[in-house]
């Protein structure tokens, strides 16, 4: 059959007349298709070459070849769009089905609540119309009748030798799990910010008035049910707090299912509490409607079953019936229901830490949502939708992230069976130091004997935890990531990087502000929803003296940053990094260090009392977290806990010196974090004192130059009629000025950076005086602001000042700041030479 295409046809007068039709033979179409496969958009020369090389196209003009390729590209685009719309339609249909089921469940829950409300009203009405003289007797009789009806409320003891007994436990767990996943067994409340949709993660809910803590999620994934089950059963691959999962027994069930007896160990998120473990029965089976279900529950004396393995380093937690239900979708993919319901024995931890173990929101983010995100990530990687740089496979990059988290968790927990032993303290209890002399065991045996080439015989870890007040975890971690010079010591980083080399490196002394380098962040990978990013950080070294020649070489860190979205409810934020060489292999050894900040939820404090701004571990556990007389106008006490852990290698001769250096370094980091926390905490309604005014002679001189130059150029006084002449009073006036005043370097051969700012300027940039010098002017102003400054710059240099129109700039945290006007003037020294540029942003506010 001849194939007809909408083109030109032959004309008896002109060969081919544009605007008409032409018939293409199958051979011509095949030749064009071959070229289209290689190059969908050939150039004019390529089309002419095609006509010369293919005799069967000799009667076709180049213009008609061009039109054919245009139509072919249009058809391809339409085909892809049709396929995309079909996929979206399938997602919408599945989501609509999911929402209808959720609506039915909510209607049942409402009916149940209405019935309970009516029953309680009836009970109250009945109780109010009767006497209570024989109430004690009625209670005793009622109890006796209940005991007669249930002579043995405990289950009979069941063990691994009785498969029928274990199957009975499994069936009970399955029924209870399904009632939570699709029924009304738990009063679910949707989490804030988790709106359903075709591209959303799904429907996420947490429990209310429930025994223990529980979370539930349901969503769509483009994988088959059995593949989803295989992914979720491998808990250590997606649950970062899971240390290990050991399957001690596998028992086939009579209905084609499988019963497993599982022992699971979980990491403790901080150094303030012990780790948890679970002894559970896991039941996997297919339902009559074709769904695949995996449910799990703890085996206790109440449920019966064999006794789990004991462990002195863990606190036994209880898993109530939990699991996941996977239902196949029409056209491919699955609908996934996940339920996590646990009791973490919150009473065994210090009172200040209990909110962490009693929060369903934190459970939802760390377990339930993490599982759903991981499956969606694997699905998109499988379909090729995720693009990664660096020539690494997605699985390799994912393994790097897992190893960084696992190594950091190992350092924070310091398990004895991994080889960790504590070192003696130096008299203070704020820093814990542990050593590991078994590199083969260290980090789950992931390093082998080649981890420490010829340098070092062990690993040392210095760690601490600290409570913070009114400091958003996401903001703090983002600040630590972007402003490394605020807390890091370049010499200590160089010592940590020396573990990758065979030659020894001298143990440095931690120096305040010892960071003579710039950092460049190179992204490697990012999860689909951008909640986690893997990156390489290049630390550019510079030697300022012959003694610092060892610091002159660039260093590299593999860094994992997560939880920097301030809108996530109950999410923890983390920054973990490890030194690597420039071309690190897929199996490169990693020695992670870093920070983890976990919210402890908002708690209202009675009588206006509030906690200290930052607390060390000793004061927190001794109960001295409240002080009378400190009032918070908002009546809200938002606390979080930050855990810090840094690891170093050492040899037998340097252990004590490395331990001393590590203690000093972590203490300096704690001090830096306290200063950073003071700077980035919300100021309105806060009881925190502002940053102290700098009183150095240089600051006094600079303020005098700023004020004098403003008056000289504009003819007005910077501080109005209340201007003071003495240095100290002038400095206090500028420091407390209501407008943001900043000074910027004036160099022709380098990008201008900020050198000074008053209190309001620091608030606007969300930074500190130390970190201010890392902020460049062109990164702060937006494009229109930079154009306005460039156009007015000649005027500033000639006239001495200029006014910039209203605009928008960015703080160091990336937040947009609007201002009504900006005044720029030259700051002159005493000899009338140019010193810097001063900016005054009037009536600014965060957008």
UniProtKB/TrEMBL annotation:
GO terms for molecular function: DNA binding. It comes from Camelina sativa (False flax). This is Homeobox-leucine zipper protein ATHB-14. Residues 159-387 form the START domain. Keywords: Coiled coil, Differentiation, DNA-binding, Homeobox, Nucleus, Transcription, Transcription regulation. Residues 7-17 have a biased composition (Basic and acidic residues). It is found in: Nucleus. InterPro entries: HD (IPR001356), HD-Zip_III (IPR044830), Homeodomain-like_sf (IPR009057), MEKHLA (IPR013978), START-like_dom_sf (IPR023393), START_lipid-bd_dom (IPR002913). The lineage of its organism: Eukaryota, Viridiplantae, Streptophyta, Embryophyta, Tracheophyta. It comes from the Eukaryota. Residues 17-80 bind DNA. SUPFAM superfamilies: Bet v1-like, Homeodomain-like.
């Amino acid at each position: 059959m001849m194939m007809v295409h909408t083109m030109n046809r032959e004309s008896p007068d002109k060969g081919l007349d544009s605007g008409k039709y032409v018939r293409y033979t199958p051979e011509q179409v095949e030749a064009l298709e071959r070229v289209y496969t290689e190059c969908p958009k050939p150039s004019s020369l390529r089309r002419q070459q095609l006509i010369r090389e293919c005799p069967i196209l000799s009667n076709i003009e180049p213009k008609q070849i061009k039109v054919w390729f245009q139509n072919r590209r249009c058809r391809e685009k339409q085909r892809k769009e049709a396929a995309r719309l079909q996929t979206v339609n399938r997602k919408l249909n599945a989501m609509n089905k999911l929402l209808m089921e959720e609506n039915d469940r909510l209607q049942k829950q409402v009916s149940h609540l209405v019935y309970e409300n009516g029953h309680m009203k009836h009970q109250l009405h009945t109780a109010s119309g009767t006497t209570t003289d024989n109430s004690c007797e009625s209670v005793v009789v009622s109890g006796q009748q209940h005991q007669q009806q249930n002579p043995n409320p405990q289950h009979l003891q069941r063990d691994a030798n009785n498969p029928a007994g274990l199957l009975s436990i499994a069936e009970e767990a399955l029924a209870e799990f399904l009632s939570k996943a699709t029924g009304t067994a738990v009063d679910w409340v949707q989490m804030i910010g988790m709106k359903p949709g075709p591209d959303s993660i799904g429907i996420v809910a947490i429990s209310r008035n429930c025994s223990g803590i529980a979370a539930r999620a349901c969503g769509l994934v483009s994988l088959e049910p059995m593949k989803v089950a295989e992914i979720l059963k491998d808990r250590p691959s997606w649950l970062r707090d899971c240390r290990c999962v050991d399957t001690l027994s596998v028992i086939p069930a009579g209905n084609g299912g499988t019963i497993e007896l599982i022992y699971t160990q979980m990491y403790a998120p901080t150094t303030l509490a012990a780790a948890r473990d679970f002894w559970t029965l896991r039941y996997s089976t297919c339902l009559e409607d074709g769904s695949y279900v995996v449910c799990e529950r703890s085996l206790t004396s109440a449920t019966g079953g064999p006794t789990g393995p004991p462990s002195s380093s863990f606190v036994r937690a209880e898993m109530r019936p939990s699991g996941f239900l996977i239902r196949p979708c029409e056209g491919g993919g699955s609908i996934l229901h996940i339920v996590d319901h646990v009791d973490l024995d919150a009473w065994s931890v210090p009172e200040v830490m209990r909110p962490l173990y009693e929060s369903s929101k934190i459970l939802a983010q760390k377990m339930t949502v993490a599982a759903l995100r991981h499956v969606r990530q694997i699905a998109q990687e499988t379909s090729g939708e995720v693009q990664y740089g660096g020539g690494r496979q997605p699985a390799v990059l994912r393994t790097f992230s897992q190893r960084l988290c696992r190594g950091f968790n190992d350092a924070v927990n310091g398990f004895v069976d991994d080889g960790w032993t504590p070192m003696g303290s130096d008299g203070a209890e704020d820093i814990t130091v542990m050593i590991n002399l078994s590199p083969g065991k260290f980090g789950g045996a992931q390093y082998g004997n080649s981890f420490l080439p010829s340098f070092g015989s062990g690993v040392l870890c210095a760690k601490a935890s600290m409570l913070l007040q009114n400091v958003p975890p996401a903001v703090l971690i983002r600040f630590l990531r972007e402003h490394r010079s605020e807390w890091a010591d370049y010499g200590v980083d160089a010592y940590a990087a020396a573990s990758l080399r065979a030659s020894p490196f001298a143990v440095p002394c931690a120096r305040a502000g010892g960071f003579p380098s710039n950092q460049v962040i190179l992204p490697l990978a990012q999860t689909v929803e951008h909640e986690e990013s893997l990156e390489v950080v290049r630390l550019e070294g510079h030697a300022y003296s012959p003694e610092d020649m060892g610091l002159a070489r660039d260093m590299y860190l593999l860094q994992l940053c997560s939880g920097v979205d301030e809108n996530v409810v109950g999410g923890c934020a983390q920054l973990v990094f490890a030194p690597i060489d420039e071309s690190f292999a897929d199996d490169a050894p990693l020695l992670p260090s870093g920070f983890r900040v976990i919210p402890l939820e908002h708690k209202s404090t009675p009588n206006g009392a509030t906690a200290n701004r930052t607390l060390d571990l000793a004061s927190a556990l001794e109960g001295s977290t409240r002080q009378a007389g400190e009032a918070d106008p908002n009546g809200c006490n938002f606390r979080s806990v930050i855990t810090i852990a840094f690891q170093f290698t050492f040899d037998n001769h340097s252990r004590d010196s490395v331990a001393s250096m590590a203690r000093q370094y972590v203490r300096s980091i704690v001090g830096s974090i306290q200063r950073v926390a003071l700077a980035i905490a919300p100021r309105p309604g806060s009881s925190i004192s502002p940053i102290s005014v700098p009183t150095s002679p240089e600051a006094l001189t600079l303020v005098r130059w700023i004020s004098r130059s403003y008056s000289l150029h504009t003819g007005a006084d910077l501080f109005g009629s209340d201007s003071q002449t003495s240095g100290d009073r002038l400095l206090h006036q500028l420091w407390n000025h209501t407008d943001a005043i900043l000074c910027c370097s004036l160099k022709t051969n380098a990008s201008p950076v900020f050198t000074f700012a008053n209190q309001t300027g620091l608030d606007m940039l969300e930074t500190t005086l130390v970190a201010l010098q890392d902020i460049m002017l062109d990164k702060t102003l937006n494009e229109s602001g930079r154009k306005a400054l460039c156009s007015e710059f000649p005027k500033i240099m000639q006239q001495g000042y200029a006014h910039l129109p209203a605009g928008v700039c960015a703080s160091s945290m990336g937040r947009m700041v609007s201002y009504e006007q900006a005044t720029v003037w030259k700051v002159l020294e005493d000899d009338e030479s140019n010193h810097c540029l001063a900016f005054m942003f009037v009536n600014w506010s965060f957008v």
